[in-house]
Specification:
Length: about 500
Protein backbone atom coordinates (compact mmCIF):
# COMPACT_ATOMS: atom_id res chain seq x y z
CA UNK A 1 0.00 0.00 0.00
CA UNK A 2 3.28 2.78 -3.30
CA UNK A 3 2.51 7.37 -4.14
CA UNK A 4 2.56 5.16 -1.18
CA UNK A 5 4.76 2.45 -2.48
CA UNK A 6 4.15 0.13 0.33
CA UNK A 7 3.61 -3.57 0.74
CA UNK A 8 0.23 -3.32 2.37
CA UNK A 9 -1.63 -6.38 3.59
CA UNK A 10 -4.84 -4.57 2.91
CA UNK A 11 -7.45 -6.48 4.81
CA UNK A 12 -8.16 -7.31 8.39
CA UNK A 13 -11.87 -7.56 7.63
CA UNK A 14 -13.94 -10.01 9.60
CA UNK A 15 -13.94 -13.58 8.42
CA UNK A 16 -17.39 -14.52 7.25
CA UNK A 17 -18.37 -11.16 5.82
CA UNK A 18 -20.67 -11.76 2.91
CA UNK A 19 -18.90 -12.66 -0.29
CA UNK A 20 -18.86 -10.12 -3.04
CA UNK A 21 -19.36 -11.54 -6.50
CA UNK A 22 -18.59 -9.39 -9.47
CA UNK A 23 -17.30 -8.96 -12.91
CA UNK A 24 -19.62 -9.50 -15.77
CA UNK A 25 -17.94 -11.80 -18.21
CA UNK A 26 -18.04 -14.54 -15.63
CA UNK A 27 -15.78 -17.56 -15.56
CA UNK A 28 -16.16 -21.28 -16.04
CA UNK A 29 -19.70 -22.17 -16.84
CA UNK A 30 -20.60 -18.71 -18.16
CA UNK A 31 -19.39 -19.27 -21.69
CA UNK A 32 -16.21 -20.10 -23.53
CA UNK A 33 -14.14 -23.24 -23.31
CA UNK A 34 -13.75 -24.65 -19.77
CA UNK A 35 -10.19 -24.75 -18.52
CA UNK A 36 -8.59 -27.80 -17.05
CA UNK A 37 -7.09 -26.56 -13.81
CA UNK A 38 -7.38 -23.99 -11.06
CA UNK A 39 -4.67 -22.70 -8.76
CA UNK A 40 -4.69 -21.48 -5.17
CA UNK A 41 -2.06 -18.93 -4.12
CA UNK A 42 -1.32 -18.03 -0.51
CA UNK A 43 -0.78 -14.34 0.23
CA UNK A 44 -0.69 -11.89 3.13
CA UNK A 45 -1.91 -8.78 1.33
CA UNK A 46 -5.70 -8.74 1.18
CA UNK A 47 -7.36 -5.71 -0.41
CA UNK A 48 -9.69 -3.61 1.72
CA UNK A 49 -11.58 -2.94 -1.50
CA UNK A 50 -10.87 -3.32 -5.20
CA UNK A 51 -10.36 0.32 -6.17
CA UNK A 52 -6.69 1.16 -6.59
CA UNK A 53 -7.57 4.66 -7.82
CA UNK A 54 -8.65 5.75 -4.34
CA UNK A 55 -7.04 3.25 -1.94
CA UNK A 56 -3.34 3.24 -1.12
CA UNK A 57 -1.34 0.05 -1.11
CA UNK A 58 0.11 -2.76 -3.14
CA UNK A 59 -2.52 -5.40 -2.47
CA UNK A 60 -5.08 -4.27 -5.05
CA UNK A 61 -2.75 -3.86 -8.06
CA UNK A 62 -0.97 -7.04 -6.97
CA UNK A 63 -4.19 -8.95 -7.61
CA UNK A 64 -5.86 -6.94 -10.39
CA UNK A 65 -3.26 -5.14 -12.50
CA UNK A 66 -2.43 -7.03 -15.74
CA UNK A 67 -4.79 -9.82 -14.62
CA UNK A 68 -8.07 -7.85 -14.68
CA UNK A 69 -7.01 -4.34 -15.67
CA UNK A 70 -4.52 -3.85 -18.48
CA UNK A 71 -2.59 -0.81 -19.60
CA UNK A 72 -1.27 0.27 -22.97
CA UNK A 73 2.11 -1.11 -21.86
CA UNK A 74 3.46 -3.31 -19.08
CA UNK A 75 6.77 -4.32 -17.52
CA UNK A 76 8.31 -7.66 -18.39
CA UNK A 77 10.39 -9.79 -16.03
CA UNK A 78 13.51 -7.78 -16.85
CA UNK A 79 11.88 -4.43 -16.20
CA UNK A 80 11.54 -3.57 -19.89
CA UNK A 81 8.46 -1.71 -21.12
CA UNK A 82 6.61 -3.91 -23.62
CA UNK A 83 3.34 -3.51 -25.58
CA UNK A 84 0.02 -4.63 -24.12
CA UNK A 85 -3.18 -2.87 -25.25
CA UNK A 86 -1.04 -0.73 -27.54
CA UNK A 87 0.50 -2.63 -30.44
CA UNK A 88 3.14 0.07 -30.74
CA UNK A 89 3.87 3.69 -29.96
CA UNK A 90 5.78 6.46 -31.67
CA UNK A 91 7.56 9.33 -29.94
CA UNK A 92 8.03 12.73 -31.59
CA UNK A 93 11.47 14.22 -32.07
CA UNK A 94 10.96 16.69 -29.23
CA UNK A 95 9.92 13.76 -26.93
CA UNK A 96 6.65 15.47 -26.04
CA UNK A 97 4.12 13.57 -28.17
CA UNK A 98 3.35 9.85 -27.82
CA UNK A 99 1.13 8.26 -30.44
CA UNK A 100 -0.27 4.89 -29.35
CA UNK A 101 -1.67 2.44 -31.89
CA UNK A 102 -4.23 0.28 -30.11
CA UNK A 103 -4.96 -3.38 -30.72
CA UNK A 104 -8.18 -3.80 -32.68
CA UNK A 105 -11.08 -5.90 -31.43
CA UNK A 106 -10.35 -5.62 -27.71
CA UNK A 107 -13.38 -5.66 -25.41
CA UNK A 108 -13.94 -5.05 -21.75
CA UNK A 109 -15.36 -7.90 -19.67
CA UNK A 110 -18.71 -6.06 -19.82
CA UNK A 111 -18.72 -6.48 -23.60
CA UNK A 112 -18.04 -2.80 -24.31
CA UNK A 113 -15.38 -2.20 -26.98
CA UNK A 114 -12.03 -0.71 -25.97
CA UNK A 115 -11.20 2.33 -28.08
CA UNK A 116 -9.17 5.52 -27.96
CA UNK A 117 -12.13 7.14 -26.18
CA UNK A 118 -11.35 4.90 -23.19
CA UNK A 119 -7.70 5.95 -23.26
CA UNK A 120 -8.74 9.60 -23.05
CA UNK A 121 -11.27 8.78 -20.32
CA UNK A 122 -8.83 6.73 -18.26
CA UNK A 123 -5.93 9.19 -18.34
CA UNK A 124 -8.18 12.19 -17.73
CA UNK A 125 -9.61 10.37 -14.69
CA UNK A 126 -6.16 10.18 -13.12
CA UNK A 127 -6.18 13.95 -12.83
CA UNK A 128 -9.85 14.41 -12.01
CA UNK A 129 -10.85 11.43 -9.86
CA UNK A 130 -7.82 9.57 -8.49
CA UNK A 131 -7.17 10.13 -4.78
CA UNK A 132 -3.59 8.84 -4.50
CA UNK A 133 -0.47 10.95 -4.24
CA UNK A 134 1.14 8.98 -7.06
CA UNK A 135 -1.19 10.55 -9.59
CA UNK A 136 1.30 13.44 -9.60
CA UNK A 137 3.52 11.25 -11.77
CA UNK A 138 1.18 12.07 -14.67
CA UNK A 139 1.07 15.82 -14.01
CA UNK A 140 3.48 16.06 -16.95
CA UNK A 141 0.58 15.18 -19.28
CA UNK A 142 -0.77 18.24 -21.09
CA UNK A 143 -3.60 16.60 -23.06
CA UNK A 144 -4.88 13.25 -24.28
CA UNK A 145 -6.69 13.10 -27.63
CA UNK A 146 -8.40 10.57 -29.84
CA UNK A 147 -7.16 10.57 -33.41
CA UNK A 148 -9.39 7.67 -34.41
CA UNK A 149 -10.78 4.57 -32.66
CA UNK A 150 -7.42 2.81 -32.64
CA UNK A 151 -5.09 5.80 -32.20
CA UNK A 152 -4.61 7.87 -29.05
CA UNK A 153 -2.21 10.80 -28.79
CA UNK A 154 -0.70 11.96 -25.48
CA UNK A 155 1.03 15.33 -25.45
CA UNK A 156 3.34 16.18 -22.57
CA UNK A 157 4.14 19.60 -21.11
CA UNK A 158 7.82 18.77 -21.38
CA UNK A 159 9.98 15.74 -22.19
CA UNK A 160 9.70 13.08 -19.49
CA UNK A 161 11.74 9.93 -19.01
CA UNK A 162 9.28 8.74 -16.38
CA UNK A 163 6.06 9.06 -18.37
CA UNK A 164 6.07 5.74 -20.22
CA UNK A 165 7.29 3.90 -17.13
CA UNK A 166 4.43 5.38 -15.11
CA UNK A 167 2.07 4.10 -17.80
CA UNK A 168 3.24 0.56 -16.98
CA UNK A 169 2.02 0.98 -13.39
CA UNK A 170 -1.54 1.20 -12.10
CA UNK A 171 -1.63 4.81 -13.36
CA UNK A 172 -1.84 3.47 -16.90
CA UNK A 173 -4.71 1.06 -16.27
CA UNK A 174 -7.49 1.35 -18.83
CA UNK A 175 -11.06 1.70 -17.57
CA UNK A 176 -14.35 1.40 -19.41
CA UNK A 177 -16.35 4.62 -19.67
CA UNK A 178 -19.36 2.59 -18.49
CA UNK A 179 -17.50 0.47 -15.94
CA UNK A 180 -16.47 2.75 -13.07
CA UNK A 181 -19.74 3.00 -11.14
CA UNK A 182 -18.64 0.57 -8.42
CA UNK A 183 -14.86 0.21 -8.59
CA UNK A 184 -14.49 -0.98 -4.95
CA UNK A 185 -16.58 -4.06 -5.71
CA UNK A 186 -16.97 -4.60 -9.46
CA UNK A 187 -13.82 -4.19 -11.55
CA UNK A 188 -14.37 -4.08 -15.31
CA UNK A 189 -11.20 -4.54 -17.34
CA UNK A 190 -9.86 -5.98 -20.58
CA UNK A 191 -7.63 -8.58 -18.90
CA UNK A 192 -7.42 -12.38 -19.08
CA UNK A 193 -9.29 -12.73 -15.79
CA UNK A 194 -12.48 -11.35 -14.26
CA UNK A 195 -13.59 -11.17 -10.66
CA UNK A 196 -15.24 -14.45 -9.68
CA UNK A 197 -15.87 -14.32 -5.94
CA UNK A 198 -14.46 -12.28 -3.08
CA UNK A 199 -14.85 -13.78 0.37
CA UNK A 200 -13.70 -10.91 2.55
CA UNK A 201 -11.15 -11.94 5.12
CA UNK A 202 -10.56 -15.23 3.36
CA UNK A 203 -10.00 -15.29 -0.40
CA UNK A 204 -10.35 -13.61 -3.78
CA UNK A 205 -11.02 -15.73 -6.87
CA UNK A 206 -10.32 -14.61 -10.42
CA UNK A 207 -11.90 -16.59 -13.26
CA UNK A 208 -10.65 -16.88 -16.81
CA UNK A 209 -12.21 -14.30 -19.11
CA UNK A 210 -13.84 -16.35 -21.92
CA UNK A 211 -13.82 -13.35 -24.28
CA UNK A 212 -10.22 -12.29 -23.69
CA UNK A 213 -8.62 -10.73 -26.75
CA UNK A 214 -5.20 -12.35 -26.29
CA UNK A 215 -3.81 -15.74 -25.42
CA UNK A 216 -6.34 -17.45 -23.17
CA UNK A 217 -5.19 -18.33 -19.63
CA UNK A 218 -4.14 -21.93 -19.05
CA UNK A 219 -6.09 -21.93 -15.78
CA UNK A 220 -9.82 -21.80 -15.21
CA UNK A 221 -9.30 -19.74 -12.07
CA UNK A 222 -6.73 -18.40 -9.65
CA UNK A 223 -7.69 -18.01 -6.00
CA UNK A 224 -5.71 -15.74 -3.71
CA UNK A 225 -6.05 -17.21 -0.22
CA UNK A 226 -5.13 -14.75 2.54
CA UNK A 227 -3.26 -15.67 5.71
CA UNK A 228 -2.34 -13.54 8.71
CA UNK A 229 -0.02 -16.22 10.09
CA UNK A 230 3.09 -17.48 8.27
CA UNK A 231 2.90 -20.91 9.92
CA UNK A 232 -0.70 -21.35 8.79
CA UNK A 233 0.25 -20.50 5.22
CA UNK A 234 3.17 -22.94 5.29
CA UNK A 235 0.93 -25.67 6.67
CA UNK A 236 -1.62 -25.00 3.95
CA UNK A 237 1.00 -25.74 1.29
CA UNK A 238 2.34 -28.78 3.13
CA UNK A 239 -1.15 -30.27 3.42
CA UNK A 240 -2.32 -29.39 -0.09
CA UNK A 241 -4.65 -26.54 0.87
CA UNK A 242 -2.85 -24.16 -1.50
CA UNK A 243 -0.53 -24.62 -4.48
CA UNK A 244 1.76 -21.61 -4.08
CA UNK A 245 3.13 -19.35 -1.34
CA UNK A 246 3.45 -16.05 -3.18
CA UNK A 247 5.82 -14.45 -0.67
CA UNK A 248 7.46 -16.48 2.07
CA UNK A 249 6.88 -14.78 5.43
CA UNK A 250 9.16 -17.03 7.49
CA UNK A 251 12.37 -17.62 5.48
CA UNK A 252 13.83 -19.76 8.26
CA UNK A 253 11.06 -22.30 7.52
CA UNK A 254 12.18 -23.03 3.94
CA UNK A 255 13.77 -26.30 5.04
CA UNK A 256 10.24 -27.72 5.31
CA UNK A 257 10.03 -27.56 1.53
CA UNK A 258 13.40 -29.13 0.73
CA UNK A 259 11.86 -32.16 -1.01
CA UNK A 260 12.32 -31.47 -4.76
CA UNK A 261 9.92 -34.28 -5.52
CA UNK A 262 7.10 -32.26 -3.98
CA UNK A 263 8.11 -28.60 -3.96
CA UNK A 264 10.07 -25.93 -5.83
CA UNK A 265 11.62 -22.86 -4.25
CA UNK A 266 12.09 -19.75 -6.38
CA UNK A 267 14.38 -17.02 -5.12
CA UNK A 268 14.81 -13.79 -7.01
CA UNK A 269 14.68 -10.09 -6.36
CA UNK A 270 12.09 -7.37 -5.97
CA UNK A 271 12.23 -3.60 -5.95
CA UNK A 272 10.79 -3.54 -2.43
CA UNK A 273 12.97 -1.44 -0.15
CA UNK A 274 12.41 -2.30 3.52
CA UNK A 275 12.74 1.19 4.95
CA UNK A 276 13.38 2.23 8.53
CA UNK A 277 11.39 5.44 8.31
CA UNK A 278 12.43 8.38 10.46
CA UNK A 279 10.06 11.31 10.94
CA UNK A 280 12.17 14.19 9.64
CA UNK A 281 9.48 16.64 10.71
CA UNK A 282 9.73 16.41 14.49
CA UNK A 283 12.32 15.84 17.23
CA UNK A 284 14.59 14.03 17.53
CA UNK A 285 14.78 13.04 13.86
CA UNK A 286 14.49 16.58 12.56
CA UNK A 287 18.16 16.66 13.58
CA UNK A 288 20.35 15.21 10.82
CA UNK A 289 22.98 14.12 13.35
CA UNK A 290 20.45 11.95 15.17
CA UNK A 291 19.37 10.35 11.89
CA UNK A 292 23.00 9.71 11.01
CA UNK A 293 23.55 8.16 14.43
CA UNK A 294 20.71 5.72 13.75
CA UNK A 295 22.30 4.65 10.48
CA UNK A 296 25.67 4.04 12.15
CA UNK A 297 23.99 2.18 15.03
CA UNK A 298 22.48 -0.54 12.84
CA UNK A 299 24.43 -3.63 11.83
CA UNK A 300 22.52 -4.32 8.62
CA UNK A 301 24.16 -7.67 7.90
CA UNK A 302 23.29 -8.93 11.37
CA UNK A 303 19.76 -7.59 11.03
CA UNK A 304 19.21 -9.34 7.70
CA UNK A 305 20.62 -12.61 9.05
CA UNK A 306 18.51 -12.43 12.21
CA UNK A 307 15.23 -10.99 10.93
CA UNK A 308 15.02 -12.56 7.47
CA UNK A 309 17.39 -15.54 7.56
CA UNK A 310 19.92 -13.72 5.38
CA UNK A 311 17.52 -13.62 2.43
CA UNK A 312 17.51 -10.33 0.58
CA UNK A 313 20.16 -7.77 -0.29
CA UNK A 314 21.68 -4.73 1.40
CA UNK A 315 21.35 -1.57 -0.69
CA UNK A 316 21.95 1.64 1.30
CA UNK A 317 19.51 3.99 -0.48
CA UNK A 318 16.13 4.07 -2.28
CA UNK A 319 17.29 2.39 -5.50
CA UNK A 320 17.30 -1.36 -6.19
CA UNK A 321 19.95 -3.03 -8.39
CA UNK A 322 17.39 -3.57 -11.17
CA UNK A 323 17.36 0.19 -11.85
CA UNK A 324 20.03 1.46 -14.29
CA UNK A 325 21.18 4.20 -11.87
CA UNK A 326 21.77 1.87 -8.93
CA UNK A 327 24.93 2.36 -6.91
CA UNK A 328 25.88 0.32 -3.86
CA UNK A 329 25.58 2.81 -1.00
CA UNK A 330 25.92 0.32 1.86
CA UNK A 331 29.31 1.77 2.74
CA UNK A 332 27.98 5.28 3.43
CA UNK A 333 27.19 4.51 7.06
CA UNK A 334 29.19 1.49 8.23
CA UNK A 335 28.21 -0.11 11.51
CA UNK A 336 29.97 2.04 14.11
CA UNK A 337 28.29 2.34 17.54
CA UNK A 338 31.06 4.62 18.79
CA UNK A 339 30.44 7.03 15.91
CA UNK A 340 26.70 6.87 16.62
CA UNK A 341 27.26 7.84 20.26
CA UNK A 342 29.55 10.68 19.17
CA UNK A 343 26.86 12.04 16.84
CA UNK A 344 24.33 11.92 19.68
CA UNK A 345 26.68 14.02 21.80
CA UNK A 346 25.98 12.08 24.95
CA UNK A 347 22.23 12.61 24.70
CA UNK A 348 19.72 9.78 25.09
CA UNK A 349 16.27 9.55 23.56
CA UNK A 350 13.09 7.55 23.95
CA UNK A 351 11.19 7.26 20.67
CA UNK A 352 7.96 5.72 19.41
CA UNK A 353 8.47 2.97 16.81
CA UNK A 354 5.03 2.33 15.31
CA UNK A 355 5.16 -0.58 12.90
CA UNK A 356 2.67 -2.62 10.90
CA UNK A 357 1.92 -6.02 12.41
CA UNK A 358 3.55 -7.81 9.47
CA UNK A 359 6.21 -10.51 9.93
CA UNK A 360 9.16 -8.72 8.33
CA UNK A 361 8.43 -5.49 10.23
CA UNK A 362 7.96 -7.21 13.59
CA UNK A 363 11.14 -9.27 13.18
CA UNK A 364 13.21 -6.29 12.00
CA UNK A 365 11.91 -4.01 14.74
CA UNK A 366 13.22 -6.29 17.47
CA UNK A 367 16.73 -6.13 16.02
CA UNK A 368 16.57 -2.36 15.47
CA UNK A 369 15.37 -1.85 19.05
CA UNK A 370 18.25 -3.90 20.44
CA UNK A 371 20.90 -2.16 18.35
CA UNK A 372 19.62 1.36 19.03
CA UNK A 373 19.60 0.63 22.76
CA UNK A 374 23.37 0.13 22.57
CA UNK A 375 23.89 3.78 21.62
CA UNK A 376 21.33 5.41 23.92
CA UNK A 377 18.11 5.38 21.89
CA UNK A 378 15.22 3.53 23.51
CA UNK A 379 12.66 2.52 20.89
CA UNK A 380 9.25 1.58 22.24
CA UNK A 381 7.71 -0.78 19.68
CA UNK A 382 3.99 -0.42 19.02
CA UNK A 383 2.59 -2.86 16.42
CA UNK A 384 -0.40 -1.37 14.60
CA UNK A 385 -3.13 -3.33 12.86
CA UNK A 386 -2.37 -3.31 9.20
CA UNK A 387 -3.40 -1.57 7.09
CA UNK A 388 -6.11 0.54 8.74
CA UNK A 389 -4.36 1.78 11.90
CA UNK A 390 -0.90 2.02 10.35
CA UNK A 391 -2.22 4.01 7.41
CA UNK A 392 -4.19 6.30 9.68
CA UNK A 393 -1.62 6.92 12.39
CA UNK A 394 1.69 6.74 10.51
CA UNK A 395 1.07 7.36 6.84
CA UNK A 396 -1.76 9.88 7.04
CA UNK A 397 -1.15 11.67 10.33
CA UNK A 398 2.62 11.28 10.59
CA UNK A 399 2.24 10.39 14.27
CA UNK A 400 5.37 8.34 14.74
CA UNK A 401 9.11 8.65 15.30
CA UNK A 402 10.29 5.42 13.64
CA UNK A 403 8.50 2.89 11.47
CA UNK A 404 9.41 -0.02 9.19
CA UNK A 405 7.66 -0.66 5.90
CA UNK A 406 8.40 -2.36 2.59
CA UNK A 407 8.03 0.15 -0.25
CA UNK A 408 7.32 -2.03 -3.26
CA UNK A 409 6.28 0.25 -6.08
CA UNK A 410 8.86 0.49 -8.87
CA UNK A 411 11.13 3.51 -9.20
CA UNK A 412 9.63 5.23 -6.19
CA UNK A 413 12.50 7.45 -5.06
CA UNK A 414 10.30 10.44 -5.88
CA UNK A 415 8.21 9.94 -2.76
CA UNK A 416 10.98 11.74 -0.86
CA UNK A 417 10.37 14.85 -2.99
CA UNK A 418 6.99 15.39 -1.32
CA UNK A 419 7.52 17.06 2.06
CA UNK A 420 3.96 16.18 3.08
CA UNK A 421 4.71 12.47 2.61
CA UNK A 422 4.99 10.63 5.90
CA UNK A 423 8.82 10.88 5.94
CA UNK A 424 8.40 14.70 6.18
CA UNK A 425 11.72 15.01 4.33
CA UNK A 426 12.28 18.46 2.88
CA UNK A 427 15.29 19.20 0.68
CA UNK A 428 14.59 21.33 -2.42
CA UNK A 429 17.86 20.19 -4.00
CA UNK A 430 16.51 16.63 -4.12
CA UNK A 431 13.45 17.75 -6.08
CA UNK A 432 15.63 19.68 -8.52
CA UNK A 433 17.69 16.55 -9.20
CA UNK A 434 14.55 14.52 -9.91
CA UNK A 435 13.23 17.17 -12.29
CA UNK A 436 16.53 17.29 -14.15
CA UNK A 437 16.60 13.51 -14.38
CA UNK A 438 13.10 13.33 -15.82
CA UNK A 439 13.66 15.92 -18.52
CA UNK A 440 17.25 15.14 -19.49
CA UNK A 441 18.91 12.66 -21.79
CA UNK A 442 19.25 9.04 -20.78
CA UNK A 443 22.75 9.67 -19.45
CA UNK A 444 21.63 12.84 -17.66
CA UNK A 445 18.80 10.87 -16.07
CA UNK A 446 21.20 8.23 -14.79
CA UNK A 447 23.69 10.78 -13.47
CA UNK A 448 21.05 12.91 -11.73
CA UNK A 449 19.33 9.93 -10.09
CA UNK A 450 22.65 8.63 -8.80
CA UNK A 451 23.19 12.06 -7.25
CA UNK A 452 19.66 12.01 -5.79
CA UNK A 453 20.19 8.60 -4.20
CA UNK A 454 23.48 9.80 -2.74
CA UNK A 455 21.81 12.93 -1.35
CA UNK A 456 19.13 10.86 0.36
CA UNK A 457 21.79 8.69 1.89
CA UNK A 458 23.98 11.61 2.95
CA UNK A 459 20.99 13.33 4.56
CA UNK A 460 20.03 10.06 6.30
CA UNK A 461 16.48 10.80 5.18
CA UNK A 462 15.72 7.23 6.25
CA UNK A 463 17.63 4.01 6.71
CA UNK A 464 17.36 1.17 4.22
CA UNK A 465 17.41 -2.14 6.08
CA UNK A 466 17.40 -4.49 3.08
CA UNK A 467 15.89 -5.19 -0.31
CA UNK A 468 13.03 -7.63 0.08
CA UNK A 469 13.63 -10.93 -1.75
CA UNK A 470 11.19 -12.64 -4.05
CA UNK A 471 10.74 -15.96 -2.25
CA UNK A 472 8.11 -18.27 -3.69
CA UNK A 473 7.42 -21.88 -2.77
CA UNK A 474 5.12 -23.96 -4.94
CA UNK A 475 4.09 -27.49 -5.70
CA UNK A 476 6.34 -29.14 -8.23
CA UNK A 477 3.85 -29.04 -11.11
CA UNK A 478 3.22 -25.30 -11.08
CA UNK A 479 4.87 -23.46 -13.98
CA UNK A 480 5.17 -19.84 -15.10
CA UNK A 481 6.01 -18.39 -11.68
CA UNK A 482 7.96 -15.10 -11.76
CA UNK A 483 11.64 -15.24 -10.87
CA UNK A 484 11.62 -11.56 -9.97
CA UNK A 485 8.85 -9.33 -8.62
CA UNK A 486 9.72 -5.91 -9.99
CA UNK A 487 6.28 -4.69 -11.04
CA UNK A 488 3.17 -3.94 -9.02
CA UNK A 489 1.23 -6.97 -10.17
CA UNK A 490 1.51 -10.69 -9.55
CA UNK A 491 1.12 -11.58 -13.21
CA UNK A 492 -1.00 -14.73 -13.47
CA UNK A 493 -1.01 -14.83 -17.27
CA UNK A 494 1.85 -17.35 -17.59
CA UNK A 495 0.77 -19.65 -14.75
CA UNK A 496 -0.13 -23.25 -15.47
CA UNK A 497 -0.53 -26.43 -13.44
CA UNK A 498 0.59 -29.85 -14.60
Amino acid sequence: MRRIGIWIAVGGLLLGTAACGGGSGGGPGTGGTPKAASLSVGAVAEPANLDFTSTEGAAIPQALLVNVYEGLVKLDQNGRIVPLLAEKWDVSGDRRTYTFTLRPGVKFSSGAPFTADDVVFSLDRVRSDWKLKIKAQLDVVDKVEKKDDTTAVVTLKRPSNGFLYAMATRLGAMFSRTGVADLPNKPVGTGPYVLGEWRRGDSLRLDANPSYWGTKPALSSVTLKYFKDATAMNNALLTGGIDVISSVQAPESLQQFADPGRFQVIEGTTNGEVVLSMNNGRPPFDDKSVRQAVRHAIDHKALLDTAWAGRGQLIGSMTPPTDPWYEDRTGDYPYDPAKAKELLGGKTYTVKMRIPNLPYAVASAQVVKSQLAQVGITADIEPLEFPARWLDQVFSKGDYDLSIINHVEPRDMGIFADKSYYFRYDNPEFGKLLAAADEGTEQEQTDALKQAAKLLSDDAAADWLFLFPNLIVAKKGVTGLPQNAIAESFDFTALAKQ
